[in-house]
Amino acid sequence: MSFEDFLNLGWKNIIHPDDFDDTATKFLRAIGTGESYSAIHRLRGADGEYRWHHARGEPLRDPHGKIIQWYGLSIDIDERKRAEDHLRDTGIKLAKASRLATVAELAASIAHELNQPLMSMLANAQAAIRWLNAAPPNAAEVKSSILRIIRDARAADETMQHIRALFKQESFVKKDVDIPDILREVVRVVQEDPKKRDVPIEFRFEEFLPAIHIDQIQIQQVFINLIVNAIEALEGHQADPLVVLRATTDSTRMLIQVIDNGPGVGDVDRIFDAFMTTKEKGMGIGLAVSRSTVEAHGGRLWAENNQTGGATFNVALPLTQATNDGSNSGLRITGAPKATTASDGLPS
Asked: Cβ atoms within 10 A of the Cβ of 55, count?
C-alpha cells in the first residue's frame, strides 16, 4: 500500500471490518487528546490473509508541549494471539468439566439425602398393602404405615427446602449496576471465543436506563448462556445471522431481550426443564439454572418464538425502590427502544 493510498482512512481497507470501529475510536481519541495510542486488530496482508497486530503510537512534543509528529509501531502478534486463544479454549473446556463435576457431586449429595426417606416410604407403603391383604385386614397397622409415609414425605420436603435455600438470593452479592455496561462486557467475553465472532450482535438500549440492584456475576452468567445459545442456534441457518440485545423499562421492571433470527424453539416452556436439551452434547441444565437465578432476583425468564422467525428470550428484572419512587432525577423509564438498523426482520 502506497503512502497516498494509506491517507484519508485508506487504512480502513486493510483492517478487519470487525476491528475497524474500535481501532478508529482509539486512534481519533489519541489524535484529539494527545494521549498514547494502543490498539489490537487484524491486518490484511498482500496475500489476503489476516494476522493479529498490536499498533502503538507516541507523540513527540516540542519544549512548549506542542505535538510535532507521531511515532508508530505495528507489531505482528499473530502467533501469540492464537496461542492465547488456544489457552482460552482450553480454559473454557476445563471450566465446563469443573461445572459438570460440581453438578455430578451435587446430584450425588441430593440423591444421598433423599434416598433414606424415599426408601422408608417405599417400605411402609409395601407394609400397608400387606396389612390390607391380611385376613382380616389390620386397619390400625395400615394407619400407622400411612402416618410413617407422611412423616417421611415431610422429611424429604424439608431436605429439598434446605437444598433450594442454597440457591436463594441471600447468597448473592448485590449492587447497583448499569445493564448496558455489563451486556457489552458479556459480548466481549463471548466473542473471545473465535467460533463466536462471526455472528454480528447489535445493541438497542432505551435512553437513560436506570441502574438495577443485582448480583453482577450471576446475571452476566445468565446472559452469557442466552447469547451463546442464540449464536449456536444460528449455525447452519440460511438467513444472515443476527443477534440483537434490547433493553427497555416500565414503571416497575427492566426488560432485557436476547433476539435471534434463527429457526426458533420447539417448546418454549419445556426448554427450561432441567436436562431438557436440543444439543447433541448438551446436558440441558443451562436454561434451568438461568431461570432459577433470575427468579432468585425477583425476576422472570421466558422464551417466545418471533412471528418473522427466530426466538426471543426475555429477562424481566425489578427496578430498585429508588427508581420506582422517581428519585433518580432525569431518568426516563418509558418509551420505545432506540433502533440501530432500519429493517432486520426482527420484532420491533
From this structure: 19
Per-residue model confidence as pLDDT tens digits over 69-98: 999 999 999 998 888 888 888 878 777 776
What pTM value is reported for the model?
A: 0.49
Q: Between vectors from CA 336 to CA 243 and to CA 223, what angle results, nearest 5°?
A: 35
Give the DSSP per-residue string, 26-61: HHHHHHHH---EEEEEEEE-TTS-EEEEEEEEEEEE
Q: Are strands 212-214 and 37-44 parallel, antiparallel or unpaired?
A: unpaired
Please provide the DSSP assignment of 205-258 as one string: E-TTPPPEEE-HHHHHHHHHHHHHHHHHHTTT-SSPP-EEEEEEE-SSEEEEEE
Rounded-to-integer distance, Cα 326 and Cα 251, Å: 9
Evaluate whether 60 touches 70 at the Cβ level (below 8 Å): yes
